Amino acid sequence: MPLFYRMGRPLSSCDPSHTDFPLELRLLRADSVIMAATPSTMLALGTPAPAFTLPDVASGEQVSLTHFADKKALLVIFLCAHCPFVHHIRMELSKLGRDYGGKDAAIVGITSNDAFEYPDDAPEPTARFARESGISFPILYDETQDTARAYSAACTPDFFLFDETRKLVYRGQLDSTRPNKGVADGADLRAALNSVLAGTPVNSDQRPSVGCNIKWKR
Fold first, then answer.
1. Could you count the other beta carbons within 10 Å of the beta carbon of residue 30?
2. Stated pTM of the model
3. Where are the alpha helices (DSSP H) in the chain?
């Protein structure tokens, strides 16, 4: 499993739950932390969107794939509250929600990490992270991790964009930035979203997302 090292002592990948893990390291300072990343699996384009019914981390309301049936585009984002890769893009996630919220597109986040081992990724802390980041789209809790497996999700963040027929047209990176390397602008994902909304083909030249590995239950 990828590791962070601080003062010669290993810490689990992207795990800021340690009480002696300072905030600035939680945000991944390159001069203090060695980072390893997991890439997305690049699920085959054309794959139908797997069904799900999961609780919203804020309201507890059950939300299903069919809730978004009237939208031309559906973006599913696997994320978690403690991951430095997600922290790096959190403002862009907020902007995506604002910019596409009034368009014919739906965005939904899903958190699938083992919340027993990673309590910062439990529903309440995740809801707080979303509020503090200004993320307006719903985030759902995949307690069984069955939804993550159905989507072949591997990392946080991991992006899956489906067209009006709910076939996969984009899976890959938000943009070319990484923690401590540029300011996220969502260029790759926005281009794909705009193509779906315009009814034009999405560029099939797609690069994997990278991030912390999903923390599977043992």
1. 11
2. 0.86
3. 23-26, 84-101, 123-133, 146-150, 187-198
